[in-house]
Specification:
Two copies of one chain form a homodimer.
Chain A (H helix, E strand, L loop, with lengths): L1 E8 L6 H12 L5 E14 L4 H16 L5 E7 L2
Chain lengths: 80, 80
């Protein structure tokens, strides 16, 4: 199965990359852009046929390696 | 509306970050991990009530700023 783990900074943690992107979009004329948050996405091919187990493994990998839970949160989706 | 633009390297473009993550996961004991691809995700709050227009604007921002279309692809989702 294919699993996608999305890692974002927690609300309240300063996100300079998101701020820079928002500023650049305003400069390009996208005046209706409000808050922008930047994060990472990791797509993993797992040798695991059961979607629930694949998702649980994605969660474990998020906790143990992919996210820094002090400042980040993550979500896991099975994408196929 | 809230829009999420996910930017990934194109298939065939070397992804050293994904390779490093895959190697680290194997070292941690996740032996069933196959290919790993790393990318970016940008979540944007748009002052736009129409989901179709929000999505179209996400696509335009992807093309004009968020992705390097020479080596990357992106997908846009309306998330709320």
């Amino acid at each position: 199965m294919r699993v996608r783990v999305s890692v974002m900074l927690k609300d309240g943690v300063l996100d300079p990359q998101g701020k820079a992107i928002g500023h650049a979009l305003h400069t390009l004329g996208f005046g209706n852009v409000g808050e922008v948050r930047a994060g990472r996405v990791i797509e993993l091919e797992l040798d695991e046929a059961d979607p629930a187990r694949a998702r649980a493994q994605g969660d474990e990998m998020g906790r143990r390696l992919l996210a820094n839970l002090v400042i980040e949160t993550f979500t896991t989706e099975v994408v196929g």
